[in-house]
From TrEMBL, chain A:
Protein species of origin: Salipiger bermudensis (strain DSM 26914 / JCM 13377 / KCTC 12554 / HTCC2601)
Topology in the lipid bilayer: Multi-pass membrane protein
Protein name in UniProt: Cytochrome d ubiquinol oxidase, subunit II
Coiled coil residues, start to end: none
A Pfam short name: Cyt_bd_oxida_II
GO molecular function annotation: electron transfer activity; metal ion binding; oxidoreductase activity, acting on diphenols and related substances as donors, oxygen as acceptor
Keyword set includes Transcription: no
TrEMBL record, chain B:
Record keywords: Cell inner membrane, Cell membrane, Electron transport, Heme, Iron, Membrane, Metal-binding, Transmembrane, Transmembrane helix, Transport
Segments crossing the lipid bilayer: 20-43, 55-72, 92-117, 129-152, 185-209, 221-239, 391-412, 424-447, 467-491
Lineage of the organism: Bacteria, Pseudomonadati, Pseudomonadota, Alphaproteobacteria, Rhodobacterales
Family: Belongs to the cytochrome ubiquinol oxidase subunit 1 family.
Any single biological process term in GO: aerobic electron transport chain
GO annotation, cellular component aspect: cytochrome complex; plasma membrane
Protein known as: Cytochrome d oxidase
Entry's localization field: Cell inner membrane
Main localization, broad class: membrane
Topology of this chain in the membrane: Multi-pass membrane protein
Pfam families, A to Z: Cyt_bd_oxida_I
Gene Ontology MF term list: electron transfer activity; heme binding; metal ion binding; oxidoreductase activity, acting on diphenols and related substances as donors, oxygen as acceptor
Length: 387, 537
């Protein structure tokens, strides 16, 4: 079967690089507001009924949204196996914390309303808070570390080895620039969650969400701008020093890479990518305005645009690098040498082309069925069936 | 590599996988049972069926969420703890996992929310379709996971690429239609159906004993017993199919399960019971049934099944052949494009056995430096622990057959004895609720422990697959999982018990309205009104 040769290997790699971005963005846009609502929960909703209103805005959809995260993991495994192997084992303890958050969150959603005790419910509220805030922060920290480079190398057998002592593996991730990235992602998801609550609730919950969301949006824009400056002056980029073979075998050690220069030189080479950070700033600015003015649908859409721009800008800035290595730059994973085989990428693309439109179609239908605000009356009237 | 690290990684994987599979079988089966109940509701309009759908649906939901939550660990643990495995076979193994997300998990997770929240927002038929989509999604999930697992047992459609130092896919269709995967899929989902049927049967029996919710309990027993009977038969038949495919794909596993030390003249006998002794390589006090093993394993009277000792000798040959491949691989790696074509040819001729040379990496950094003793040790490593497999398998099979007996009994009672169940049988039904879980976990134990020392049979040794983490890393996460998972288990069981005790939520106005509409039809033959006795009795 040579059907897969219909699309060149290097083209497929770029497509899968873009699809990786689509999945991450899909996750941030959908599960992002679930995490935002969770992190906002103790602040926007004080009484039990208010909290149930906030929780029930995401109650029917968080499960589907979380699949973006799981599918992201699966797609990295299938399309970028070295990336999956290096990053998941390299960020081991941080991954464990994220896992714990993603395990406790579904359980909290589902079990919170199953008992009436106030202590029971308060415990699950904190679980929802941590389950939203911690991953929202850590995902940004991870992206910051990717930009800084990660201390790993590959043996000639391509076995990933992580260089860094035990304490470094978790605390070492919390470098200042990475923490700033964490602030960007946490604040932008808080803004997104606030935009969602503005759309899906009214009364005090919506009012508080708008107030917090406005501040969060401004923090996100400020931190994002600061991170850009930091990248310009304080962080080294990476670049190939050997000839780039875009359709060669996926062996990172076949190419030579050196540290130096700036990531932002990408904007000189490919000026059009400036559209991504521009979208980021415009989206956030408009979302903040919408939150202040009390617009609903448009605020959520602007917020989505802002998040889209911010995440896309990271990928576009680093292209073709995916995971640079600080201790052995030659081991760095790039679009050209960290993918699956030509055949696997093609098969996975066919499968994705069939199922992604279906997923988007039925997900949209579900959101349409659930359209409308969640009110305190809904929650109290259907106490036995909602969260 | 420290041995301790690999063992801790294995322990953590076993723990989290088996914990995950506490919730999966019930999800697989109960999703279908609930969808069947809702279908009956849509077809008959009887409120009792809606009440059943909601009641079992609630229990389904409590269970489902933990299946989802613990499944995330499974999806991520390959990269976290088995990074060399992920690199080495990700090109093949990653694909079914990603397709599972695209095709199945998205479906079930998107619609499960609508199932619980959509009662008032959807028409009856639409809601019923949603219930079926959840069930189909769950079962498709199992299909893709078992295609992935089947490939670990029988790695077809792939070959080693020296340039990328990993296995790469050569045929997606071979991976997809791997006979091991297909047999395993039906075996596993059937086991899930049995689990859910025994669960529904047991909880309903409890209600009959306590003399409450009898309407719901009797109907539930009728559904569970008929569905469970079909499933229990299927589980045994497809288990046999798995055994048959193992006889030509995983001979060592089969021989170990049967504690067959020596190759026996065909047709081989089946050791019903005995005490396998791995040191002495014999089975003490064995009770043998002539011919049966040959018939099950090969479905013929003339094909021989090789014994453990013979297979060990074959492994040793494979290790020696693997060393030729390994040597050629090292040359290819050094010289890359300048490699003489005959070296590449040598490699390709022997690359199937490369994995066997890798077994030596446990003892020596460069397998080519291995001593004769080390080669003998590596060959012995290809024999899994015989006694645990022998017993686990027998217990699983015994449980499997007993489920058929239970389902036949309740099916006959439900069909021909007007739903009258002797009291002892109700107590028994409650008592056996945990047994399908035991059988399912034993089944996974046989499948995975029996594959040792490989993660991918004949391709990649377990000892090589693990991530280079520190022992402290593993101890932290292991302790974390233990504490965290135990807490969740206690909470989950507490809620299950609470909701079973609470019983179904009865929508009184709906039930009365329905009864009023059907009063003439429900009037019993002695002229009593439907409200006098239970209308469905």
């Amino acid at each position: 079967m040579i059907l897969y040769e219909l699309i060149d290997f290097d083209t497929l790699r770029v497509i899968w690089w873009a699809l990786l971005g689509v999945l991450l963005i899909g996750f941030a846009l959908t599960d992002g507001f679930d995490m935002g609502v969770g992190a906002l929960l103790p602040f926007v909703a004080r009484s039990d009924v208010e909290r149930r209103v906030a929780i029930n805005t995401v109650g029917p959809v968080w499960e589907g949204n979380q699949v973006w995260f799981i599918l992201g993991g699966g797609a990295i495994f299938a399309a970028w196996p070295p990336l999956y192997a290096v990053s998941f084992s390299g960020f081991y303890l941080a991954m464990f914390v994220v896992l714990a958050a993603f395990i406790v969150r579904p359980v909290a959603f589902k079990y919170r309303s199953k008992r009436d005790s106030a202590t029971w419910r308060t415990c699950w509220d904190w679980a929802l808070f941590a389950g939203g805030a911690v991953p929202a922060l850590l995902f940004g920290v991870a992206v910051g570390n990717v930009l800084l480079g990660v201390p790993f190398h590959l043996t000639p057998d391509l076995m990933p080895m992580y260089d860094g002592n035990f304490a470094m593996k978790f605390l070492g991730l919390l470098r200042p620039f990475a923490l700033l990235s964490g602030v960007v992602s946490l604040s932008m998801l808080l803004m997104h969650g606030a935009a969602w609550l503005t759309l899906k609730t009214d009364g005090m919950v919506a009012i508080r969400a708008r107030a917090i969301g406005t501040v969060a949006g401004m923090v996100a824009a400020g931190a994002y701008a600061l991170a850009g400056l930091w990248l310009a002056f304080g962080v080294d980029g990476f670049a190939f020093t050997s000839e780039v073979v875009a359709n060669g075998p996926s062996n990172p050690l076949y190419s030579e890479v050196a540290r130096g220069g700036s990531w932002l030189s990408a904007y000189a080479e490919r000026p059009w990518i400036a559209i991504a950070p521009l979208m980021g700033f415009v989206g956030i600015a408009m979302a903040v305005r919408g939150l202040r003015e009390g617009f609903e649908v448009s605020t959520l859409l602007w917020s989505k645009l802002g998040i889209f721009g911010i995440i896309a800008s990271v990928g576009l800035t680093m292209f073709p690098f995916i995971l640079p290595s600080t201790v052995d730059p030659d081991s760095s994973l790039t679009v050209w040498d960290a993918s699956s085989s030509h055949r696997t990428l093609f098969i996975m693309l066919v499968v994705t082309a069939i199922f992604m439109p279906l997923i988007l179609a039925y997900t949209s239908w579900v959101y349409k069925v659930l359209w409308g605000k969640v009110t305190e009356d809904d929650v109290t009237a259907n106490s036995h069936s909602v969260y | 590599m420290e041995i301790g690290l690999v063992e801790l990684s294995r322990l953590q994987f076993a723990l989290t996988a088996m914990y995950h599979f506490l919730f999966v079988p019930l999800t697989l089966g109960l999703s279908i049972l609930v969808a069947i109940m809702e279908t009956v509701y849509v077809m008959t309009n009887r409120p009792i069926w809606r009440q059943m759908t909601k009641f079992w649906g609630t229990l389904f939901g409590i269970n489902f969420v933990l299946g989802v939550a613990t499944g995330i660990t499974m999806e991520f643990q390959f990269g976290m703890n088995w990074s060399y495995y992920s690199h080495y076979v990700g090109d093949i193994f990653g694909a079914p996992l990603a397709i599972e997300g695209l095709m199945a998990f998205f479906l079930e997770a998107t619609f499960v929310g609508l199932f619980f929240f959509g009662w008032d927002k959807l028409s009856k038929v639409a809601h019923c379709i949603v219930a079926w989509l959840v069930a189909i999604g769950s079962n498709f999930s199992a299909l893709w996971i078992l295609i992935a697992n089947g490939w670990m047992q029988n790695p077809v459609g792939a070959e080693f690429n020296p340039d990328t130092m990993r296995m790469e896919m050569t045929s997606f269709f071979e991976v997809l239609f791997n006979e091991v995967a297909q047999a395993k899929f039906v075996h596993t989902v059937s086991a899930g159906y049995v689990t859910a049927s025994v669960f529904v049967l047991g909880v309903s029996a409890l209600y009959l004993i306590q003399d409450r919710h009898k309407d719901l309990a009797r109907r539930s027993i009728a559904v569970a017993a008929s569905f469970g009977l079909a499933a229990a038969l299927s589980v045994v038949v497809l288990g046999d199919e798995s055994g048959y495919s193992a006889s030509h794909t995983q001979k060592m596993k089969l021989a170990a399960i049967e504690a067959m030390w020596e190759t026996h003249e065909a047709p081989a006998p089946f050791t019903a019971i005995g005490f396998p002794d791995q040191e002495a390589r014999e089975t003490h006090y064995a009770i043998e049934i002539p011919w049966v093993m040959g018939l099950i394993g090969t479905r013929s009277l003339t094909t021989e099944i090789p014994g453990i000792n013979e297979l060990e000798a074959r492994s040793e040959e494979m290790i020696r052949e693997g060393l030729i491949a390994y040597d050629a691989l090292m040359t290819i790696r050094e010289q890359r494009d300048a490699t003489p074509p005959e070296v590449r040819e040598t490699f390709e001729a022997h690359s199937d056995t490369l994995g066997y040379a890798m077994l030596l990496k446990r003892y020596v950094d460069d397998p080519r430096d291995a001593t004769e003793d080390q080669i003998a040790m590596a060959a012995e490593d290809t024999i899994p622990g015989v006694a645990p497999l022998f017993w686990a398998f027998r217990l699983m099979v015994a449980l499997g057959f007993s489920f058929i007996a239970v389902m036949v009994f309740f099916f006959i009672r439900a069909s021909f004895y007007r739903m009258r169940f002797p009291r002892w049988s109700l107590y028994a039904a409650v008592a056996i609720i945990p047994t399908p879980w035991i059988a399912a976990e034993l089944g996974w134990f046989v499948a995975e422990f029996g594959r040792q020392p490989w993660t991918v049979d004949g391709v990649l040794p377990t000892a090589l697959s693990a991530s280079h983490l520190s022992i402290a890393d593993l101890l932290i996460t292991l302790a974390g999982f233990l504490i965290f998972y135990s807490m969740l288990f206690v909470i989950e069981m507490g809620l299950m018990v609470k909701y079973i005790r609470k019983g179904p939520f009865q929508d009184v106005p709906e039930t009365e309205a329905w009864q009023a509409r059907h009063e003439h039809r429900l009037r019993t033959h002695d002229g009593q009104g439907p409200f006098a006795t239970n209308p469905a009795e």
